[in-house]
Design goal:
Blueprint lengths: L5 H11 L3 H10 L4 H14 L1 H4 L6 E9 L3 E9 L2 H4 L2 H17 L4 H6 L1 E2 L2 E2 H12 L4 E9 L2 E7 L9 E7 L4 H17 L11 H17 L7 H16 L5 E2 L2 E5 H7 L4 E8 L3
Antiparallel strand pairs: 1-2, 2-5, 3-4, 6-7, 7-10, 8-9
Length: 279
């Protein structure tokens, strides 16, 4: 019988996240050698990675960090189940991914996945960690914003889960009023889910499609011909109010738009990033 203790089993389970029987089997095969047992668990998990590749990883969390008040990083990391997504090991992995993004000051998801972690690519490291968790784990999205001031806001949609919504807002002034406004706008964006920062960011084909739908709807409603152009503009503007951050009525004071709130604070928005897990 291999020479190991109950404390070894407990330590190996905490280190790898593997089940009791898998840990015991690995220790037996490794003749009690702790590091060899870890390797055996990883190898076993990685063999199953190909089978997991086609499975959906729609659960997970978002993590964010602001550096020097002027640079924000936002990362979404996914798993298959909320059970894994709220585990300490998965949360720790997400934090490691975020710190890697900050340490390497990456600009894109591709750069992040290629970044070095203990002598290997981050993407390979994440795959190995997923193997010990027994689920498909991936880093699905990354954003970086910069400005005179940057605010990060994370929101939990359920008390027992990590943050599922994350927002970064960058503004072009660094005053206390600007920072406060940036935070208020980040909270607003988390709740109101804008898809774009400005009207200019909305693809032309999207706007054209909204105009087409508005015109067809107006004609189907037998609106007077002379009124149709005004109706189209009104409905397109309503689309912008739903989807463009700066056009949205501010959640705390709907009489003002988000743009007006920022202007009153002596600033304007430079960039926005918003992730909601799985969407």
């Amino acid at each position: 019988m291999a020479n190991y203790t109950a404390a070894d089993i407990k330590a190996l389970r905490e280190r790898t996240g593997a089940g009791m029987m898998d840990v015991k089997k690995a220790l037996d095969e490794a003749d009690g050698d702790f590091e060899k047992a870890i390797e055996a668990i990883r190898v076993k998990g990685l063999k199953g990675a190909a089978k997991r590749e086609s499975r959906s990883a729609a659960e997970g969390l978002v993590v964010a960090k602001v550096v020097d008040g002027t640079k924000g990083f936002l990362v979404e990391v996914n798993a298959e189940t909320d059970f894994v997504a709220k585990s300490d090991k998965f949360v720790g992995l997400a934090e490691q991914v975020l710190e890697t993004a900050v340490a390497h000051d990456v600009d894109t998801l591709e750069q992040l996945l290629e970044a070095d972690v203990d002598g290997k690519k981050l993407s390979d490291h994440v795959t190995e960690e997923g193997a010990t968790l027994g689920e498909k784990v991936l880093v699905s999205r990354f954003a970086k914003v910069e400005g005179a001031a940057v605010d990060a806001y994370l929101h939990k949609t359920a008390k027992d889960l990590p943050a599922q919504v994350g927002v970064l807002i960058a503004v072009d002034a660094g005053s206390e009023d600007a920072k406060t406004a940036a935070h208020d706008v980040a909270v607003h964006a988390a709740a109101m889910a804008p898809n774009h920062l400005t009207r200019d960011e909305v693809p032309e084909e999207t706007v054209a499609n909204e105009r087409r739908i508005a015109e067809e709807t107006a004609r189907a409603e037998d609106k007077p011909e002379q009124a149709i152009p005004k109706i189209i503009e009104g409905r397109v503007n309503a689309f912008f109010k739903d989807n463009v951050l700066l056009d949205q009525p501010f959640a705390k004071d709907p009489k003002q738009t988000v743009a007006q709130v920022l202007e009153a604070a002596g600033t304007s928005a430079q960039a926005m990033a918003r992730f909601r897990v799985g969407s």
